[in-house]
Amino acid sequence: MEYREIGKTGLKVSRLSYGASSLGSVFHETDDRVAIKAVHTAVERGMNFIDVSPYYGHYKAETVLGKALKDLDRSDYYLSTKVGRYGKDGVNTWDYSAKRAKDSVYESMERLGIDYIDIINVHDVEFADLSQVVEETLPTLVELRDKGVVGHVGVTDLQLENLKWVIEHAAPGSVESVLSFCHYALNDDKLVDFLDFFEENGVGVINASPLSMGLLSQRGVPAWHPAPKPLVEACRKAVQHCAAKGYPIEKLAMQYSVANPRIATTLFSSANPDNVARNIDFISEPVDMQLVEEVREIIGDQKRVSWANS
């Protein structure tokens, strides 16, 4: 496993990391015992960065992950969680106030059974008043960083422009990392356009969802996926092309997403230990760039005409 530093944090993390959203049964129902084994498999195979959120499964993911962490040495992993986005009884909620952010950090630590969070993120700022994030949420998290409760502060969002705005308007050094999803995959590499900016500001980059939330998978997209039909169809043809060559598109997508050395790590989520092991095996082989180009040609004009840019 190759390890890269997240910006200037000093955290050297595996280039493929574990996203714990699946532990919250956000994609389908999961068996907690199997899910816990998936976490253990990830760490045992060298993945030393785990990302979660109280929003995933409306606190379930953090709770299940906490059970898994009881059997792991705290020095074997870095942990990232979030504030701002929550839910209860199937209803999503958002609160980016200073008080809620501070309370959320301590609540997460209790669910996770830890006394220190390596990276705390403001979650999905597209749902927030960005001025509140800059003037209230981030200063609260920086205060906790200064007290040693958390190690580093980051921001996550689907819209890269929002991440850029927050960094430009926040106090220098407030934002140490960004987490971007669905913008560095075979069908969309918009993240590349922002790498210079992030690097110039000393901000580390975390990528997520190399399968573009199912677009780049043999299973296909879930019913709720917001991608327009032309993009779904283009990706389906790419899936078939890879299958005809005996090269699962999931393998190509994983290899492509972790190959860029300017991206510290790529997160993927699975509550299945066999899937975790298979994806780690996938990235042990070099990416087939010829097949990458063939896939991108098939996706063609749909490459950036996607739900993720709307």
From TrEMBL:
GO terms for molecular function: L-galactose dehydrogenase activity. One of its GO terms (cellular component) is cytosol. Residues 15-298 form the NADP-dependent oxidoreductase domain. This is Aldo/keto reductase.
